[in-house]
Amino acid sequence: MRKSVLIALLLVTAACGAYQFPGANPSPPAQGGGVSGRVLAVPCAPVEQAGTTCAGRPVPKLELDYITGGAVAAATVTDSEGRYAVSLARGTYEVKMKTYMRVISGPLRIAVAPGSNQVANYILDSGIRVPAPQQ
What we know:
The structure is a single chain. The protein is mainly beta. It has one helix and ten strands. It is elongated, with a radius of gyration of 21 Å.
């Protein structure tokens, strides 16, 4: 009895050690590649101080969808620092973001080659504007 409990415990421990959290160190599929990057939003405030500029603030919890053939083939979500990573099969993908913000820079179409690891950074327009003066 004691021996069978010990064996069962060993098997459960081994199985738990093999689990990998989604998005943690994604390795590209055998016939595909990886895409990673960071998403930032600008401007950071309606009025910025003279002589200072905002390099952008991270956009957390933003979903990026990779679409091919009219269907979502893969999706990922940015972390608290605006970083993301996804593994994709070989092919060409349209990138869609679930946000009200407009893409200022970054590729909206990505071609993935076998074994490739691409960096695709995005800058979004946050929509923050100074209100028009009242007359």
